[in-house]
Design brief:
about 140 residues; Rossmann fold; 5 helices
């Protein structure tokens, strides 16, 4: 089976340029590029919806869980429901700076393939996890 190697990352407009989370995302993008993937990054879930409607050719989607966004749970749940209506098999993973399992609705937990804690693993290790997830 042939795979496309396009990853979509959904960041957050609340991440400041010098934030450790944004730096980790940049390192992850570089590590994924070394594995032969191309990446697209959008700053919010609304932009992600627009991009997916234009091109559905993503082999995985990573969503940064913005713990400072009081609507994150609802926004993410709505995005996933909308996305799954069009695509039932593309892996979804959540990226976070902390443990978010207690904040995540059960309906969302069922749809997420992986949780990635940005500061617990090297970017290379995480890129390998994503590569494996895509090819699983």
């Amino acid at each position: 089976m042939k795979f496309n190697h396009n990853i979509l990352f959904v960041s957050s407009p609340r991440l400041e340029q010098d934030s450790p989370a944004l730096q980790s995302l940049e390192e992850l993008k570089r590590a994924i590029a070394e594995r032969g993937f191309s990446t697209s990054v959008v700053n919010n879930l609304n932009d992600a919806v627009r991009l997916i409607q234009e091109s559905q050719k993503y082999s995985a989607i990573g969503i940064y869980w913005d713990a400072k966004n009081p609507d994150m749970s609802a926004e993410c749940k709505n995005f996933v429901q909308s996305f799954r209506q069009r695509n039932t098999s593309t892996p979804l993973f959540l990226l976070s700076e902390e443990d978010i399992t207690t904040q995540t609705p059960l309906s969302l937990i069922k749809e997420v393939s992986e949780y990635i804690y940005l500061f617990s693993e090297t970017a290379t290790f995480t890129a390998n996890r994503i590569y494996t997830l895509v090819h699983r």
